[in-house]
Amino acid sequence: MTITPVTIAFAVLAIFTLGGGLGVVSSRNMVHAALYLVLALFGVAGLYVLLEAPFLAAIQVLVYMGAIAVLITITIMVTRRIMGITESVNRQWPLAAGIAALVAVTLGFVVLGLFNGLLPVADVPPDNIEQLGAAFVSHQAYLLPFEVASVLLLAAMIGAIVVARD
Amino acid sequence: MIPLHWFLLVAAGLFSLGVYGVLARRNAVAILMSIELMLNAVNLNLVAFWRYMAPETLSGQAFAVFVFAVAAAEAAVGLALIISIYRNRETVVAEDINMLKW
After folding, report:
1. Is B98 inside any structural domain?
2. Is residue B53 assigned to a domain?
């Protein structure tokens, strides 16, 4: 593979993503883990840009890095009194690492066996985002799932308020 | 353009890190964060397959948007549960949360 700006960007974003993920699962300090999570989410947002899905990259930044990361940080701050003392991983961590490695090797074999070196079959249509927006409110496409997602978010909001209120 | 398998390998690595985090971490917030990593890996796969296999369709991005919505709902309810358990039991360590176990 020749080195172009795109491959360099991909390599940097992949390192952000996987390095951030490693930080999330290995940090003892939970605040550091939350910051590593933001790094991993940022890497994924950049990969969306490389995949020519700028709308999803924007949602990733707004919803994940904006809302979920802040929610997680606040939860860590209100529950942190015992955080410094405990071990970060439980006794079965070697087994967990083995299972994770098995998952990684299996997925790696599948990916390299079935999708090795595939290139895009076509270009993304220039009006892709407009089409996506129209599809969400079209009854021939995603209107029903869209409304169900709205109800789900409303239920989650009410549920979170009820559960978290003393 | 970068071949498809590089994106899929990054997603596979991210998913495996999430699996390890869910199985090994003790802090419930860390387990939720690992679940977010796995959801992100799945989303990355959806978008990568959409871009390389069927860029003229909308389903890949649409499904990714629904995964975002479900992930937001899951994070909100999960963190609310953790805060509620912390209020009642003064702990967020997963193996100490055993009120329903006997």
Report:
1. no
2. yes
Residue A114 within a domain: no
Contact between B79 and A75 using a beta-carbon 8 Å cutoff:
yes
Coil, helix or strand at residue B99: coil
Tell me the one-letter amino acid at A158. I
Rounded to whole angstroms, the Cα distance separating B70 from A149 reads: 7
Q: Are B36 and A146 in contact (CB under 8 A)?
A: no
Residues, chain A: 166
Pick among B5, B16, B39, B56 to test the A interface (most A CBs inside 10 A): B16
- Are A76 and A132 in the same domain? no
Cβ atoms of residues A101 and B13 within 8 Å: no
**pLDDT tens over chain A, length 166 residues:** 678 888 999 999 999 999 999 999 988 888 889 999 999 999 999 999 999 999 999 999 998 888 899 999 898 888 866 555 556 778 888 999 999 999 999 999 999 988 887 888 888 888 888 888 888 888 888 899 999 999 999 999 999 999 988 7
Residue A91 sits in the same domain as residue A128: no
Interface of B with A in 34-73 (CB under 8 A): 34, 36-37, 40, 43-44, 47-48, 50-56, 58, 61-62, 64-66, 68-73
Q: Please count the structural domains in chain A.
A: 2
CA–CA dist A102, B75 (Å, integer): 27
Q: What is the ipTM of this complex?
A: 0.92
Co-location of A1 and A75 in the same domain: yes
Looking at the domain assignment, is residue A78 inside a domain?
yes
Looking at the structure of chain B, the number of domains it has is 1
pLDDT, one tens digit per residue, over B4-59 is: 899 999 999 999 999 999 999 888 899 999 999 999 999 999 999 999 988 888 88
